[in-house]
Amino acid sequence: MVVKAQSRPAEVLRPGHAGCPGCGHAMGMRMVLRALGNRAVVVVVPSCVAVISGPYPYAALNVPMFHSAFEIAAPTAAGISQALKIQGKDDIPVLAFAGDGGTFDIGLQSLSGAADRNEDFIYVCMDNEAYMNTGIQVSSATPRYAWTGTSPMGNTRRKKHIMEIMAAHRIPYAATACIGFADDLTAKVKKAKEMRGTRFLHLLSPCPTGWKMEQHLSPKAAVAAVETNIFPLYEIFGGSEYVINYRSKGLPVETYLSLQGRYRHLRPEDVKSIQAETDRNWEELKRRV
């Protein structure tokens, strides 16, 4: 019997990008782009994703790329998508990459407007939980108690529930994903590609520099975030139908927190508080399912 070798998906992110060693963004972008394919248009904004993508003529992407202003990733992608349709090219997906700062904070208004109109594009929030590109400042995606350059004693605010915000827009598809579960991420990108309307992926992508950990720990930290239920993997269809994609091992949150120097200052009562909030969020997600 002759067994045919399976062809590997084409790499859309070329070698030689300018990301830091162990960059979770670079890993996540590579997986997303590989699943999307080389017939697409990509929008990036000022952030680590723009650094990784690179400037013209040294861009690291093998697809057309448009660099928009920080706060308008979503409407830029929507405009490009509309222009392609006017030209009769309705088979070219348009994808926007933005960080948590450009999604949770600065770009939230324009993202909300595009989602309200159900514009036809895929939006991927590359979440490393702070403004890493400009010096590790706190964002509304930064978890409670986490160290950043502007919260040296630990962030006093809770992380914004961006998935609930997107679900409230009743968009066709929203999902969480992380670099530690590559098959799950790939499947979700391919599923989003086959749909129409606004599709949103919240992708956890650890930052060794900002999270104060060794370069090789990015995938391990991402896995630990899922296995402790700090970052569960699930989908939301039409804003109301919830599906959990992976039942975690339910490990204690310390498994995740201990990998990162940004939590080194935590007191035992802080860890208990994080565990209690994680348990509440997990029970709420199960209730919604």
Question: Can you walk me through this structure?
Answer:
This protein has helices at 24-36, 48-53, 73-86, 100-105, 108-116, 162-167, 182-193, 208-211, 218-227, 254-257, 268-288; strands at residues 41-44, 65-67, 94-99, 121-127, 173-178, 198-204, 234-237, 241-244. It is built from eleven helices and eight strands. Helix 1 (24-36) packs across helix 7 and helix 3 (73-86) runs parallel beside helix 5 (108-116). It has a single domain (24-288), classed as Rossmann fold, CATH 3.40.50. It has an eight-stranded mixed β-sheet with strand order 2-1-3-4-6-5-7-8, with helices on both faces. It has 289 residues and is an alpha/beta fold. Helices cover 36% and strands 14% of the residues.
Question: What descriptors fit this protein?
Answer:
36% helix; Rossmann fold; 289 residues; eight-stranded mixed β-sheet
